[in-house]
Design brief:
This protein is of the alpha+beta class. The chain has one domain (12-74): Rossmann fold (3-Layer(aba) Sandwich). The protein has helices at 12-25, 42-57, 71-74; strands at 30-34, 61-65. The longest helix has 16 residues, at 42-57.
């Protein structure tokens, strides 16, 4: 059971990974992700980004926002749009 506002059953990180997994099983052509690594430890964040890169290599378009990714995660990106001061 995933839980909700009144029923706590899994952590926020587990909930985030479950949501990403749920989206992936529908085999979309495009995924929009807002901070898919926030609240995750560095190892889990890397594994999520590695999984997303694999999906991108298989033809899925992935658009994600990330604030201050680690160097290892940064190296996984193929194309970047970097914003500075909101521009």
């Amino acid at each position: 059971m995933i839980g909700g506002f009144t029923l706590k059953s899994i952590s926020g990180g587990e909930r985030k990974r479950t949501c990403i997994g749920y989206e992936l099983i529908t085999d979309p052509n495009l995924m929009l992700l807002d901070e898919p690594t926030s609240g995750l430890d560095s190892s889990t964040a890397y594994r999520i980004c590695k999984l997303l890169k694999k999906e991108a290599e298989n033809g899925m378009t992935i658009i994600a926002t990330l604030h201050q990714p680690s160097g290892e995660i940064f190296d996984l990106f193929d194309r970047l749009i970097v914003l500075h001061d909101g521009f």
